[in-house]
Amino acid sequence: MAAITLVVPILAGKAEAHARFCQAILTTRRDEHTRSRRNLGIVRERAWAQHLPDGSTGILMRVEGPGATDFQQAQVRSADPYDLWFLQQAREINGDSYYDEPKAPEPGYDINTNAPDQHREISYLVPVPDDCVDAWWEWTRDLEGTQRMELLMSRERARIHRETVWMVQLPNLKAAAYYMQGASALDELQKLFLSHDPFDRAFSTRAREIYRVDVTEEASLMPPTLRFAWDADSPSVQQRMPAY
Q: Is the pTM of this model over 0.90?
């Protein structure tokens, strides 16, 4: 199934507007949201919000379905009043970045253990210091290439069935954007960083060096919060509305 994950900022001063936007999708405009997504060929949608060290907030929005790869352009072409409202809100809250033509991201690596579909999932951002960007690309090329089999075995042990990472540019920083599926992806990832397996220990050490955070500490991962979830076969939108 086609899928994309969009990463966009919340503009300064727009956090409350974003909360109101999500609230409307969850409640008063829920039926319109369902009709819109079905018309656009979307069958699953998730949005996570994550606070970043520079004080900003990033939104990771994942859509899946036959229409996923053309999702933004189809919205722009649409004359549906809901789609027009959604895009107006997105421009005000996320800026023009939402309208950027999506480019297929060049992943640092993309692995799939071919386990049965697991929809316990998470998407999150880890800032990459400017002077570590080249090292990040070198590391992820090794993980995608010569270390791929060890990476697959590591993630099988951690019950992580799908993991994709790519680089994104946000207004004030670069970040590695992760999407993971698994039994309990973020919890298992933290356990992995405490593993005594030689590959896991080397992975953890390199992550510390590049991200300059202690990946064994829960707070260092800056866990995101699921803002809403929508599925075509269960269109009631799930609500997750933390305070900003």
A: no
